[in-house]
Design brief:
Number of helices: 7
Distance between the termini: 36 Å
Oligomer: single chain
Largest sheet: 5 strands, antiparallel
Helix content: 40-55%
Strand content: 15-25%
Order of helices and strands: HEEHEEEHHEHEEHEEHEE
Radius of gyration: 46 Å
Structural class: alpha+beta
């Protein structure tokens, strides 16, 4: 049982942990892809809007009449809407530029050197766009787009040979990605602690029925061994003491105890068969009213000898699809229990009623000692050792009610016991 609990706990813990890890990885990967796509999109937008790629060799900016030519070596920093009119002709369309979410810079290249740098948005102190542009220019001899590991790379860029360099400062992007990663690790630790606690609770809940069944099985084996040991001891003792003088008496003891053992083993086999379920393909439509009525008639003689009468209130013609033999055994067991536990000169009441379209209720009520509340479920356990549920003098083993409930449940119903007002009621519901 400990091994079952251990494996169940590990299975639940690992499964939930893997799900948590998968979710956190998915969130971080998707966020990383989004940031990377945004960087590419920003590079594309600036690259397209600047129009550097469409310039032809020998292109000269337009100069209005009486307008003084502009020194194209001027370096422009700041947002596009702050750029003054005295700028190179290449930047005449900057009023159509949009301000980017990322920190971007565009470096204009002419004759193998950088002439102008524009900042598209806010600039960060310490980020030397000119120096980075010169480094990119020196390291590349052809067009290139570079977006490296956004967690660690300081910048991304797109280089157009003899044209321009668009640079993205990755600082804020790296910060956001690392922040999400750290939060994910923190959440992982917190949820792992919750998973440990939840796995323990869930393991206890899942293994409780198995643990309960295991304990009942041990109790069942102990009780069955006890019941079988007594008749075996009598048989062996009778066989050893058998002589010509008391041959008949010892032989009668052997027969009696052998019969008890046979009935006990038969009851155990019956329970085992019922526990494995019933083949409902053999069920047939039966007159349930008639079955219960015949059962009551068969017990009237026994009840009369004990000073007890049986009063019936059975609706006629109630049809029910069932195993007739099993229903007869179930009803006779409950009725026998009611008769044997009734006060003398009392009445056992039996009623059969249809409740709605799909349920039949059988109530068997007797007046006798009440069943303690804590025992109202236990009386249906095998080898239950209540005061009156099992006594050797009337050959009872505590299997009858267990068999009866199993029959009811195999038919889609159940049996419940209750006591109150000086009466004990066994309520059988069949569906």
């Amino acid at each position: 049982m400990k091994e079952l609990k251990r494996k169940t706990y590990l299975t639940i813990f690992l499964l939930l942990s893997l799900i948590l890890i998968a979710v956190l990885i998915f969130v971080n990967v998707q966020n990383y892809k989004k940031e990377k796509n945004d960087v590419y999109r920003s590079l594309d937008i600036v690259d397209d809007r600047m129009g550097f790629r469409n310039e032809q060799p020998g292109f000269k900016p337009d100069v209005k009449p009486n307008e003084k030519p502009v020194d194209e070596s001027v370096e422009i920093q700041g947002a596009p809407d702050t750029i003054h009119e005295n700028m190179p002709g290449d930047f005449k369309n900057l009023e159509n530029m949009i301000i980017m979410d990322h920190e971007l810079y565009t470096a204009k290249i002419e004759n193998g050197s950088i002439t102008t740098i524009i900042s598209h948005g806010n600039s960060t102190d310490g980020f030397d766009a000119r120096k980075i542009a010169e480094k990119i220019l020196s390291e590349n001899t052809s067009d290139k787009s570079f977006v490296g590991n956004l967690y660690f790379e300081k910048y991304s860029y797109r280089y157009r040979i003899n044209d321009s360099v668009v640079i993205v400062n990755n600082a804020d992007i790296s910060y956001d990605l690392m922040e999400l990663l750290i939060k994910s690790i923190f959440l992982f630790i917190v949820f792992e602690m919750l998973i440990i606690l939840f796995s323990g609770l869930l393991t206890s809940w899942i293994t409780h029925p198995a643990l309960d069944a295991f304990e009942k099985q041990k109790e069942f084996i102990a009780d069955a061994s006890h019941e079988l040991k007594t008749p075996l001891a009598v048989i062996m003792a009778s066989a050893d003491a058998m002589t010509a003088d008391d041959f008949d008496q010892n032989l009668e003891n052997i027969r009696y105890e052998s019969d008890r053992m046979s009935r006990l083993i038969g009851g155990l086999l019956k329970l085992s068969r019922l526990d494995s379920g019933m083949d409902k393909s053999n069920f047939k439509e039966e007159n349930l009213s008639l079955i219960i009525e015949k059962t009551c008639l068969s017990y009237e003689g026994v009840a009369f000898e004990m000073g007890i009468s049986i009063d019936t209130d059975i609706d006629e013609g109630i049809s029910y699809k069932c195993n007739k033999d099993e229903i007869e055994q179930m009803s006779s067991t409950i009725l026998d229990n009611a008769v044997r536990h009734s006060y003398k000169d009392s009445v056992v009441k039996v009623s059969v009623k249809r409740k709605g379209k799909n349920e039949i209720i059988i109530n068997i009520i007797n007046k006798g000692d009440p069943i303690p509340e804590e025992d109202r479920e236990r009386i249906f356990e095998r080898f239950y050792r209540g005061d009156k549920s099992r006594r050797r003098d009337d050959d009872r083993y505590g299997l009858g009610l267990a068999i009866a409930r199993r029959i009811a449940r195999n038919h889609g119903g159940d049996i419940l016991a209750s006591s109150g007002g000086g009466e004990t009621t066994f309520r059988i519901s069949l569906k």
